[in-house]
Amino acid sequence: MGCMCAKSEPLSSASNGGLGIQNKVYDGPKPVLYYLSASPPCRSVLVTARQIGLDLDIRTVNILAGEHLAEDFVKLNPEHTIPTLDDGGFVLWESRAICTYLVTKYAARDDLYPKDEKKRAMVDRRLYFDATTLYGAIISLTKPIIMRVETQATEAKKKPVLDALQQLEKYLADSAWVAGDSLTVADTVIVASVASAQAIGVDLAQYPNIAGWFERCKTQLRGFQENAEGAAMYGQFVQSLLGAPAFP
User: Fold this and answer.
1) Catalytic positions
2) 173/47 Cα distance (integer angstroms)
């Protein structure tokens, strides 16, 4: 799974993608993101950074080649996981923490991660849903295949993915975005999980609310195409190991 990283868009004070999100003017060194294109958590960070117009120094770490176990990287992140962010010596891992940190520090407005306690709590709720339920189910299914521990996608492993998508479908029944009526960091994160589910064979047509939201993401999220390309790599790799899509 190689890297497919498009050129970053520089941070500026211009409005973002027609959404009215203003970016802080920042002249410091670029935050460094240790990254792999096929990784859904890495892609969620990339989409979030793109959405606020933040230029990142992207450095590929190929975990299948063991690069995350290199001495320098383990010194940086003892848990040797990606994505890892190094922002001027402040090192952070766990993708959702990175996303909310970047928005809090670099976005001039709070559209993506509201300061209002109730709105922020709803965004956090969706982020936790992704971590534990949606992405949690996807990685539970695919990681043993990627690590060559399992050779098939069992119904027992596939059902939680479909159940999680059905729950997301319900969330989107009453709002245009996953945490309410406005696009938030919950969308920039969950779009990576949904793209990955689609890439391993899930037919989004079964979920009309998700499909409609995904189309809105396509037109309103910066980095959507990069996410799609990385998801395709993820799906192709899983399919190459299974000999067929996980959800034929």
Assistant:
1) 39
2) 24
User: Going from the N-terminus, what domains does the chain have, and what CATH number goes with each?
Assistant: 32-106 (3.40.30.10), 117-241 (1.20.1050.10)
Instruction: Give the dihedral sign, CA 159/164/169/174.
Output: positive
Please, are residues 88 and 76 in contact by the beta-carbon 8 Å criterion? no
CA atoms of 127 and 178, how far apart (whole Å): 10
Q: Is 13 left (phi over 0), alpha (psi -120 to 50) or beta?
A: alpha
- pLDDT, one tens digit per residue, over 15-53 is 333 344 446 656 678 999 999 999 999 999 999 999 999
Task: Give the pair of three-digit tokens for residue 51.
Answer: 């959405």
Task: Say which residues have a Cβ less than 8 Å from residue 194's Cβ, sequence separation at least 6.
Answer: 134, 165, 168, 204, 210, 214
**Tens of pLDDT, residues 147-169:** 999 999 999 999 999 999 999 99
User: Which residue in this structure is represented by tokens 């245009």?
Assistant: 176
Residue 107, helix vs strand vs coil: strand
14 vs 170 pLDDT, higher one: 170
Helices (H), 29-70: 40-51
Query: In terms of Cα–Cα distance, which of 188, 183, 177 is closest to 44?
Result: 188
